[in-house]
Amino acid sequence: MPLTQSLYESAEALNEEFAAEIAEKLAEGIAQRGRASLMVSGGRTPLPLFKTLSETDIDWASVDVSLVDERWVEESSDASNTRLVKENLLVGKASAARFIEIKSAEADATDAALACESRLSAMSQPFDVLILGMGEDGHTASLFPCCEQLEDGLAMNRGRVCIATQPTTAPHQRMSLTLPAIVASRNIYLHLTGDKKRQVLEDAVANATATEKPIVAVINAAQVTLKWAP
Ligand SMILES: O=C(O)C(O)[C@@H](O)[C@H](O)[C@H](O)COP(=O)(O)O
């Protein structure tokens, strides 16, 4: 599948145009199906986009928001993607959106995966807009090249929407959407900033297998739009 590339001169330009495009796709979903779904990634890259989106005119009361992946930590932790989203996206105009929690009280995310799938099933699926990030090791969502659960995460025929993963090269157990749940989404974006990540992506697409660099699994299976700025 081809990777559509939207390259911007600055992160500010990217945020403005990307937020407007997300607004348009969510409005389409609401017009056609009554509600729309927005799946976001955590990490540092989306922070300025969250701020722009939170002030964008969208019928937020008709939007369900959740996470592509979560670190299995308390919401009070700085590493919590839930906290990041609640403090930076679900504020201002976007505070009217409904947030579907990925994290729950179980100590081990493995014991929480089926209940998490059931909460996500309340959202309009396939997801209208899904935004991925990527690590410099080629992981996306919490599908890490090093994790034992990668085969399960990439399997297209096991009927799973999310699984627990345990990276060995990054902290925290995770909950992650699986490849089939990601690639079923209506509009899939890969949001990257900086030359280094663009180089990692180019090298991965040219030279790596899906298990070596899981971002390749997504690009091979779906139409993905890269949103990149320096
Ligand atoms: O919770 C997470 O860790 C993610 O959702 C993860 O997949 C992230 O998108 C990449 O690790 C990039 O992270 P940065 O944006 O911080 O570089």
TrEMBL record:
InterPro entries tied to this protein: 6-phosphogluconolactonase_DevB (IPR005900), 6PGL (IPR039104), Glc/Gal-6P_isomerase (IPR006148), NagB/RpiA_transferase-like (IPR037171)
GO molecular-function term, one example from the UniProt record: 6-phosphogluconolactonase activity
Catalytic activity: 6-phospho-D-glucono-1,5-lactone + H2O = 6-phospho-D-gluconate + H(+)
Keywords: Hydrolase
GO BP annotations, alphabetical order: carbohydrate metabolic process; pentose-phosphate shunt
NCBIfam families attached to this UniProt entry: pgl
Classification lineage: Bacteria, Pseudomonadati, Pseudomonadota, Gammaproteobacteria, Alteromonadales
Pathway: Carbohydrate degradation; pentose phosphate pathway; D-ribulose 5-phosphate from D-glucose 6-phosphate (oxidative stage): step 2/3
Record-linked Pfam families: Glucosamine_iso
Similarity section: Belongs to the glucosamine/galactosamine-6-phosphate isomerase family. 6-phosphogluconolactonase subfamily.
Keyword Nucleus: no
Function: Hydrolysis of 6-phosphogluconolactone to 6-phosphogluconate.
Domain Glucosamine/galactosamine-6-phosphate isomerase: start-end pairs: 10-225
Protein name: 6-phosphogluconolactonase
